[in-house]
């Protein structure tokens, strides 16, 4: 059935009828509940009203009457007071009510009395300070909560002062917190909050006086509360009075420091008052409490200005001297992230201080610039603080990255940032530095790419310290970064990165093992690595792989696979890689913990199998075989291999050497080149064997051209020296240093070329010439290995034979030079197998002559160019490589071209470091060579000048390579074919400390030789009637002596400039080396006394200074000066600096001539001369006085001399060297004026006068230098004046003009003299600008706009000075005509009078130069004039 609407209706009716009774019951209950709620609500409302009326304050008084009438319902202290209207209406009604009261004006006093009574009870007093509650009946109030009763009353003018006094006088009554309704409350804080931010104060002066009075009579907590509220209570008119009071409070004690500084920072003070307040704060800095330090720093940095920011930074930096250095430095670097760590209250202070300083650096430019300038001004390493490193790291996160990087480089060059500095920083503050890891890593990457070894070395040290002190995440990032550097392709960057990784693996192997997989990634760059770098890489990987078998198993497998592939390759490059890798694996697998330990059988078989694999794969490749022997000998010599491995190698190697190279002496036969048996030192019984050198060379040459199949193994002359080295090292290791088993080899004769044939070499064929040259190369290398092998033997016979072999080396080298000059397009045989490319023709007679001609042409071309004034040690090393050519036999080769062997260094074997013990060898008789004492001939054997020069030259090169100096040496980013490490592979296996220890043991012998050379020259001087310049230096002996003297000084320079002496751990080594020098001038018991470090420095300085009397060339003089400077830097002493200046002055007063008697000249001489000039000026007690002496005494004498003449006072000053003198003097003048301390308002009168005198002298010197353009107008001189003249003007108006401003009124004549003299100089500068347009030199013209900009800035700066001193009428400006250097008007611009006529079209631009004045006879020029 369908349900319709009608059906639904009737269904509903039926339901209602059924339940009607229940519905009626529900409605009845609802009505009853509604009635009950109404009754209950009325009852509660009546109870509330009754309760409210019971809480009201019912005491009758004028106060109660008026307040209640006007709208405030006072309570009895149990609840907050109520207000029924808006508080502004209440104040208005109260004023009307008081005036309408019948007792007015007594009404005011009665009201106040009632208020006093009302506040007498603590509960009511508390509520009168609490906000009032707006009544529910009020609908026009500003809010449901309004001000407190007392604050509303203080808004009434006639009540304000009395109510304020009433409240403030209650402050002394409170001590500590009060308790209200179970809660503690500091009432003084609530009371003083009533005074904050009042709309109007009737008598602010009286209020401030009352508040200050309360400070002196209240408790410490209330005093702190009052001081904190002061800026929010008093008006600006009273800020100065309050500031003076707070300053006194600050000076009385430091318990209120935080409150006082917080208040002072919120007061509006004048700059003068702020300066005084800051001075007071700085005075209290020494006694500041640790927890107060953040507020102190914040105040100083927030109130700093451009003028005093540097001073404030210096005071802050001095905190490190106040026994809180550690905490203060940690403040700087504590990041906000440390707030969430568990910390003490001190760490909270650190965080607050960090926020204060970082905000000062980030948001105030002057603060950051002040820190940068102050750090840059620190020149001594001892004055550099760890704080400066932290500040630079903070600054590195700003926009000043380039500035910070440059500052880092400067600090590293000067030695202020050293490895010792890093050690102290990381050991104390590693946790803090960890938060700056990103910045440090970025900085490391930049510094590592530097072309200066000192800078990149510092980056290496920074990387190492980060790895040692930071967590595993940082270590992983460091290793990844280093691997990235290796893939850069830049040699210097790759070397430095590999050096870091090698050092970390050697010294922190366990920590590096987890990151071995990252190091393995370097294998991807094998093709870009040199042989030395590949050796380092495989050494690292093998140590990481075999340190822990479980973790390194995968790397072991990969290494074996790669090395086997490389060994099987036909490419010599990859075969070399395989040889090196295999030897490094052997080194790691066969290492033993003690000398008697043997390997397990399984590992022994693996090692032997690998060695045999390498040996077989290299059998047909002489270079690979020689490399294999060299690498194996190095591993045996340096590493501790197991005994059974060493025995196996020794047994196999010795027999092979005898079979390949040692033959019995027999009658010779005819060869392509006539041979002879020479160089035998043994007696007849021991002379039955010889080295089969020349026949082996000829056989090898024939086999190369033969088409017959190669034998599986044939002796190669290329392997002679490497093979003997391996034999010698094995014998040395097994016999504990005794070489008796092979001592016959050192005296063994050699089948070599007849010496008569060499005299006729020019008539021989090309093949014969090449065989002779090859024989001489092998011969020399054989002798070198003889010296390397037997130099450690102590008996006289061996020493004598080693000296004989040294003589053989020098003699053969002279013959080789002659042969090379006659042999064109010759490629020598390799002696060091670290070469990457096929060696090219290095030098021939034809190329030598061509290079000589090109050098002359280049010298003429560069004659007019500027002189390179780079102060580096490269100049002292420049001629090191060419000493042999300077001491050749002139009689035999006078008219022949001679090739220097300096370019063939890579074709000679390396001398070991222990060979230089031969320098200590005394005289040995010829009879000592015969152990059987059968020799009747007695002859003394000792190192002759030629052999001594050979050893010292090699020693200098080794020290320069291995001992990193603190001096500035730059590397090139250009790739070179010859690796710089070739010839130093043995040396590189030693650490710097090991090398320096060896050299210090040689110092007594070096001193002996130095003294002998000096005695030789002194005797020559005596023979020439005491005239040192008249010594005949053209003899071979004199030339050798000069070279030896120079090499000895270079050795001393390399040793004492080693940057390792900056480390405290090397202080004992430094003292030991200084003790050697000082012992040379002490005798008797004086050497036994313990000398202080200062005495050691002074004594060593004195010892070396004594050799200044025997300096015969300028190069030796420069080296001696550098040595003295290095020693003097280790102990700052004005006396030593003055002695250096005196020595430099003496060198300038000598006329330097060549060995041919001609006056020295050329670029090299100029470079040396500029070092001496700069040394004389820098180390003088008064730099400006020294500059003035050169300028006003030396140069005028040169002007008066003839064309070929020189200065009488300084004979080294000639017309050829004038450009060097001029440039250095001008450069040092700029440095001197920059060092004049800037003007400060706090300077004393005497200090200002001293600065004025210095500027007066500087301006006079500048005037003399600029006016020299009228006499010397060369291009170099013009460029110097344009560059340094502009810099002088810029420094003058930045630093001198503020001083002249302050002294203008009281020293007008002195200021007038300075400005007039300076105007004469700028007139010449203006003429120079016009002259550059005449000569049309682009490089000079480009500098003109900068100079004119500086001149224009100076004009407006003078105008500002006159305006400040209220005499602007003394300044007027006109147009200046363009003239040349001689004062003649430029004709092309005669008709042009406007300033816009000068090129550039920039309005006033060039002609309007206010700092130029006309000559006295020039009436047509219009200029700026400053009449005084």
UniProtKB/TrEMBL annotation:
A GO molecular-function descriptor: DNA polymerase binding
Subcellular location: Nucleus
Sequence similarity: Belongs to the Fanconi anemia protein FANCD2 family.
Main location: nucleus
Protein name: Fanconi anemia group D2 protein
Composition bias type Acidic residues, residue spans: 1408-1422
Annotated Pfam families: FancD2 (PF14631)
Keyword Nucleus: yes
Residues of the signal peptide: 1-25
UniProt entry tagged with the keyword Hydrolase: no
Organism: Lottia gigantea (Giant owl limpet)
Matching InterPro entries: ARM-type_fold, FANCD2
A GO cellular-component term linked to this record: nucleus
Keywords: Isopeptide bond, Nucleus, Signal, Ubl conjugation
GO biological process, one term: double-strand break repair involved in meiotic recombination
């Amino acid at each position: 059935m369908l349900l319709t609407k009608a059906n639904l209706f009737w269904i509903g009716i039926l339901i209602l009828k059924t339940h009607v009774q229940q519905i009626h019951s529900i409605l009845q209950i609802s009505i009853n509940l509604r009635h009950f709620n109404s009754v209950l609500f009325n009852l509660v409302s009546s109870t509330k009203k009754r309760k409210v009326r019971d809480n009201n304050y019912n005491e009758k008084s004028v106060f109660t009457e008026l307040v209640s009438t006007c709208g405030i319902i006072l309570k009895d202290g149990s609840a907050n007071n109520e207000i029924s209207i808006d508080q502004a209406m209440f104040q208005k009604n109260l004023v009307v009510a008081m005036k309408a009261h019948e007792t007015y004006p007594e009404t005011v006093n009665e009201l106040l009395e009632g208020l006093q009574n009302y506040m007498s009870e603590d509960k009511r007093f508390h509520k009168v300070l609490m906000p009032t509650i707006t009544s529910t009946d009020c609908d026009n109030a500003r809010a449901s909560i309004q001000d407190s009763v007392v604050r509303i009353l203080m808004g009434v003018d006639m009540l304000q002062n009395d109510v304020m006094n009433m409240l403030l006088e209650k402050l002394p009554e409170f001590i500590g917190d009060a308790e209200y309704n179970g809660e503690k409350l500091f009432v003084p804080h609530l009371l003083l909050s009533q005074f904050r931010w009042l709309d109007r104060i009737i008598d602010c002066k009286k209020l401030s006086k009352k508040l200050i009075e309360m400070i002196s009579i209240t408790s410490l907590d209330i005093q702190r509360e009052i001081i904190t509220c002061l800026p929010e209570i008093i008006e600006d008119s009273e800020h100065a009075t309050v500031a003076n009071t707070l300053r006194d409070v600050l000076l009385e004690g430091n318990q209120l420091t935080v409150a006082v500084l917080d208040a002072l920072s919120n007061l509006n003070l004048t700059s003068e008052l702020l300066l005084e307040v800051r001075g007071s704060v700085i005075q209290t800095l020494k006694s500041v409490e640790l927890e107060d330090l953040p507020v102190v720093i914040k105040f100083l940095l927030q109130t700093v200005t451009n003028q005093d920011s540097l001073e404030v930074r210096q005071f802050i930096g001095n905190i490190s001297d106040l026994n809180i250095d550690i905490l203060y430095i940690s403040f700087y670097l504590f990041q906000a992230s440390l707030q969430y760590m568990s910390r003490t209250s001190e760490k909270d202070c650190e965080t607050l201080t960090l926020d204060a300083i970082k905000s000062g650096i980030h948001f105030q430019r002057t603060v950051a610039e002040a820190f940068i300038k102050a750090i840059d001004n620190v020149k001594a390493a001892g004055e550099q603080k760890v704080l400066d490193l932290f500040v630079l790291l903070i600054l590195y996160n700003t926009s000043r990255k380039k500035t910070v990087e440059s500052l880092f480089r400067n600090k590293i060059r000067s030695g202020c940032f050293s490895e010792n500095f890093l050690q102290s920083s990381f050991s104390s503050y590693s946790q803090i530095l960890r938060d700056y890891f990103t910045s440090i890593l970025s900085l490391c990457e930049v510094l590592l790419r530097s072309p200066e070894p000192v800078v990149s070395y510092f980056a290496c040290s920074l990387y190492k310290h980060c790895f040692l002190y930071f967590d595993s995440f940082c270590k992983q990032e460091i290793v990844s970064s280093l691997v990235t550097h290796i893939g850069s392709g830049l040699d210097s960057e790759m070397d430095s990165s590999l050096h870091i990784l090698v050092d970390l693996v050697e010294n922190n192997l366990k920590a590096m093992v987890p990151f071995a997989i990252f190091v393995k990634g370097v294998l991807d760059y094998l093709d870009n690595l040199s042989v030395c770098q590949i050796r380092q890489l495989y050494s690292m990987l093998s140590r990481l792989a075999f340190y822990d078998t479980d973790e390194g198993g995968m790397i072991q497998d990969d290494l074996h696979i790669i090395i086997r592939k490389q060994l099987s390759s036909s490419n010599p490059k990859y075969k070399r890689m395989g040889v090196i890798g295999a030897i490094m694996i052997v080194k790691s697998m066969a290492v033993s913990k003690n000398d008697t330990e043997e390997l397990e059988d399984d590992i022994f078989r693996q090692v032997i199998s690998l060695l045999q694999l390498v040996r077989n794969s290299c059998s047909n490749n002489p270079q690979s075989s020689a490399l294999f022997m060299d690498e194996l000998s190095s591993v045996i010599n340096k590493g501790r291999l197991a005994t059974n491995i060493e025995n196996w190698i020794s047994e196999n190697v010795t027999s092979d050497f005898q079979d390949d190279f040692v033959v019995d002496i027999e009658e010779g036969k005819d060869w392509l080149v006539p041979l002879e048996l020479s160089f035998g030192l043994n007696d007849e019984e021991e002379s039955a064997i010889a080295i089969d050198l020349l026949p082996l060379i000829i056989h090898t040459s024939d086999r190369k051209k033969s088409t017959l199949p190669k034998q599986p193994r044939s002796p190669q002359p290329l392997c002679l020296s490497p093979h003997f080295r391996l034999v010698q090292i094995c014998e040395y290791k097994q016999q504990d240093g005794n070489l008796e088993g092979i001592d016959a080899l050192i005296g063994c004769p050699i089948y070599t070329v007849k010496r008569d044939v060499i005299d006729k070499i020019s008539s021989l064929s090309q093949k014969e010439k090449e065989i002779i040259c090859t024989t001489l190369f092998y011969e020399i290398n054989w002798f070198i290995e003889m010296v390397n092998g037997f130099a450690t033997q102590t008996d006289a016979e061996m020493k004598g034979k080693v000296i004989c072999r040294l003589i053989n080396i020098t003699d053969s080298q002279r013959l080789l030079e002659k042969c090379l000059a006659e042999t064109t397009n010759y490629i020598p045989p390799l002696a060091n197998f670290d070469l990457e490319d096929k060696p090219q023709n290095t030098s021939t007679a034809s190329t030598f002559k061509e290079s000589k001609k090109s050098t002359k042409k280049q010298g003429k071309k560069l004659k007019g160019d500027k002189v390179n004034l780079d102060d580096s040690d490269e100049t002292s090393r420049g001629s090191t490589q060419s000493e042999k050519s300077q001491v050749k036999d002139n009689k035999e080769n006078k008219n022949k071209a001679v090739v220097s062997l300096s370019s063939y260094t890579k074709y000679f074997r390396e001398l070991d470091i222990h060979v230089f013990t031969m320098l200590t060898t005394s005289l040995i008789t010829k009879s000592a060579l015969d152990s059987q004492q059968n020799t009747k001939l007695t002859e003394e054997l000792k190192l002759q000048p030629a052999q001594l020069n050979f050893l010292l030259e090699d020693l200098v090169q080794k020290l320069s390579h291995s001992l990193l100096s603190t001096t500035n040496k730059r590397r090139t980013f250009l790739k070179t074919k010859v690796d710089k490490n070739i010839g130093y592979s043995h040396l590189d296996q030693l650490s710097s400390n090991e090398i320096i220890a060896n050299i210090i043991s040689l110092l007594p012998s070096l001193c002996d030789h130095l003294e002998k050379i000096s005695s030789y020259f002194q005797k020559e001087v005596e023979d020439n009637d005491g005239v040192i310049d008249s010594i005949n230096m053209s003899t071979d002996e004199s030339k050798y002596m000069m070279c030896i003297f120079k090499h000895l000084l270079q050795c001393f320079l390399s040793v004492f400039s080693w940057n390792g002496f900056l480390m405290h751990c090397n202080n004992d080594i430094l003292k030991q080396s200084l003790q050697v020098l000082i012992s040379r001038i002490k005798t008797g018991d004086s050497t036994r006394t313990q000398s202080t470090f200062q005495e050691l420095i002074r004594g060593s300085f004195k010892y070396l200074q004594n050799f200044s009397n025997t300096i015969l060339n300028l190069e030796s003089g420069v080296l001696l000066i550098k040595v003295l400077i290095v020693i003097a830097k280790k102990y700052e002493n004005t006396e030593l600096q003055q002695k250096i200046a005196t020595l430099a002055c003496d060198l300038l007063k000598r006329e330097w001539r060549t060995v041919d008697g001609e006056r020295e000249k050329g670029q090299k001489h100029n470079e040396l001369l500029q070092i001496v000039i700069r040394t004389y000026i820098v180390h003088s007690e008064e730099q400006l006085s020294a500059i003035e002496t050169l300028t006003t005494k030396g140069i005028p004498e040169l002007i008066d001399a003839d064309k070929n003449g020189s200065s009488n006072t300084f004979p080294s000053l000639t017309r050829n060297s004038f450009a060097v003198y001029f440039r250095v003097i001008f450069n040092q003048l700029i440095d001197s004026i920059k060092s004049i301390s800037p003007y400060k308002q706090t300077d004393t009168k005497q200090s200002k006068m001293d600065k004025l005198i210095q500027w007066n002298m500087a301006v006079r010197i500048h005037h003399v230098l600029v006016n020299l353009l009228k006499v010397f107008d060369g291009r170099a001189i013009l460029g110097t004046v344009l560059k340094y003249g502009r810099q002088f003007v810029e420094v003058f108006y930045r630093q001198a003009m503020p001083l002249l401003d302050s002294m203008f009124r009281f020293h007008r004549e002195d200021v007038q003299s300075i400005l007039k003299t300076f105007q004469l100089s700028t007139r010449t500068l203006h003429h120079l600008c016009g002259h550059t347009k005449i000569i049309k030199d682009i490089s000079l013209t480009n500098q003109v706009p900068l100079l004119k900009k500086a001149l224009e800035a100076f004009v407006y700066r003078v105008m500002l000075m006159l305006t400040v001193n209220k005499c602007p009428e003394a300044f007027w400006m006109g147009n200046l005509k363009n003239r040349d250097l001689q004062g003649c008007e430029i004709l092309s611009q005669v008709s042009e009078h406007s300033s816009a006529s000068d090129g550039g079209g920039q309005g006033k631009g060039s002609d309007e130069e206010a700092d130029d004045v006309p000559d006295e006879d020039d009436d047509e020029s219009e200029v700026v004039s400053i009449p005084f």
